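ok trying again, last paste got cut off:
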Amino acid sequence: MTGMEAKDQVAVATDTTQRRRWALQRGQLAAPLLPARARRPAAVITLCCFALVAVLGALFAHQSHGSAIDHAVDSWVMGLHVSSGTLERISYLGDLTAVTALTAVLAIGCLAVRRLSGALLAVAGVLLASVLTEAVLKHLVHRTITASHFLTYPSGHTTVLFALSTALAVVLLNPRSGRPRPLLRGCAVAAAVVVSCVVGLAMIGLDFHYFTDTVGGAAVGTGVVLCIAFLLDHDVVRRWLGLLGR
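nice, full thing came through this time. structure:
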């Protein structure tokens, strides 16, 4: 490549970047969900999530027993001696009604600040992650638990709650107004993740899932939402969202 060709390529790249910046300033492109600094880490996390789902699914396909790590964690959870009534009440947070309500709250909050992309991320992320888990992966892997013979991998409760937690994290990663403050944003996401983990442990305590089922569910929910975030950040989609007023 000659020096002139290299300069031409740099000029084209600079011109493209400048045109995108101008388009965003004129409101033709909606603001991205993932800022530039977060795109590479998000891509790595997405790939790791899907790789983990695939590996665990291959390891536990058509099995009706847990692994060594399942036995260790599941025994610890059972050893806490939390009453079944308490565990059931905790598990309700991952039920359809609760998740639908929480997703609606996040979507409405995004619409209130004119972030259509955030609302779409929450709704599509939770819905697609749930469908992938319940309609595809559980039947494909066909892992069962001895006590109930339910299909267990991945956990549907942890899938939808981690999808919702990831959507919340993405929305709060690059807020339009810079508010709430970073500390409050971090606390909100941490609280959502803790609740998701506690619900996963409750499902183990109720003997509906093995520990690795909840790990797989968390990976599905996280990976699906990040994939949708990349899709919504495509220039074509952002231009469409910009025309709708974000």
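cool. Residues 22-26 have pLDDT under 50 and may be disordered. The two ends are 42 Å apart (CA to CA).
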